[in-house]
Design the sequence.
């Protein structure tokens, strides 16, 4: 079997951020559903949380190529 | 074909001959040859892009603000909307209305500089996101690190600032030997690294995806017969869809970089409890 083990590592590493981002946006949707006026304030928090959780997955794929 | 060939500017072999094996894109895709040399220093395309982005951002905002009419024309309106976006929703929200004005020039310049450099990855003849070269991002992250640490140290004093960042409030002193090194590491050492790595890795991964779909589609079309003739164009359709995603990611990463910068500055300026 050819290929590099790096990609298996990346695949495993992507599980955590996948779940995390799902949780973040579930909370965002819940919050907006309960109080639609809060959408503006909640949106910036949701985007911040998304970027922080996504960073780990992105570090994973970048290092899978580089190392 | 035109789409695929414009992506080849950074892919390496321009045209794959029949019978060659597929060169998958990797870190070597980002090593661009120098365009010209000044003395012994080779000037590469990303370096030129940095200068181009700075010149364009400066020229746009200078000409947008040159007239200062009370009733703004279209260019001035666009410039004011752009400036207002960074000043209100990023700086004032996060740093607080008392001392946000000092940092608005830095955050505003940073946001549009990063945004334009990111968009260079999607602009047709350029097609290379400048900040997919890690060294350039670490320069920006180093500047941000110096700024938020200097601001905090000026406000709290050097030792007071380190205590402010490393010692969490409301925690019993028994846990200090565990928490203080961890907080110090996370707030002062690791922050510039993750700040830079987030921006760099997002653009790196996005560019590799685009190059993979474009060159892979061409390889399939040329070398794999009937199946390739179907799969190749499908790869190109995916490349088009991924480039829309890339536009979103490029904007978002610029926004998040500046958002986190503002958050770190406001954290450094926060009052003691």
Sequence:
């Amino acid at each position: 079997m050819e290929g590099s083990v790096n990609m298996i590592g990346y695949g495993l590493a992507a599980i955590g951020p996948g779940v995390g981002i799902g949780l973040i946006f579930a909370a965002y949707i819940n919050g907006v559903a309960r109080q639609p006026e809060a959408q503006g304030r909640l949106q910036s928090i949701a985007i911040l949380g998304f970027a922080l959780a996504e960073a780990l997955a992105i570090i994973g794929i970048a290092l899978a190529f580089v190392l | 074909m035109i789409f695929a060939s414009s992506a080849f500017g950074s892919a390496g072999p321009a045209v794959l001959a029949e019978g060659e094996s597929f060169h998958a894109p990797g870190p070597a895709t980002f090593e661009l040859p120098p365009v010209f040399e000044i003395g012994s220093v080779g000037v590469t395309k990303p370096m030129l892009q940095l200068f181009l982005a700075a010149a364009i951002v400066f020229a746009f905002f200078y000409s947008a603000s040159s007239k200062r009419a009370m009733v703004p024309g279209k260019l001035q309106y666009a410039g004011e909307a752009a400036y207002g976006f960074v000043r209100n929703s990023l700086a004032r929200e996060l740093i607080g209305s008392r001392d946000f004005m000092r940092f608005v020039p830095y955050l505003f310049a940073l946001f549009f500089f990063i945004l334009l450099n990111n968009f260079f990855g999607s602009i047709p003849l350029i097609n290379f996101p400048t900040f997919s070269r890690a060294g350039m991002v670490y320069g920006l992250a180093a500047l941000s690190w110096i700024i938020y640490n200097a601001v905090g140290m000026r406000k709290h004093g050097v030792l007071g600032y380190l205590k402010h960042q490393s010692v969490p409030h409301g925690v019993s002193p028994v846990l200090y030997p565990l928490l203080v090194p961890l907080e110090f590491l996370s707030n002062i050492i690791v922050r510039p690294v993750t700040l830079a790595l987030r921006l760099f890795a997002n653009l790196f991964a996005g560019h590799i995806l685009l190059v993979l779909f474009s060159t892979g589609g061409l390889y399939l079309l040329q070398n794999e017969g009937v199946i390739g003739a179907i799969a190749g164009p499908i790869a190109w359709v995916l490349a088009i869809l991924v480039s829309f995603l890339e536009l979103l990611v490029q904007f978002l990463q610029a926004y998040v970089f500046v958002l986190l910068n503002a958050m770190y500055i406001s954290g450094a300026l926060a009052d003691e409890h």
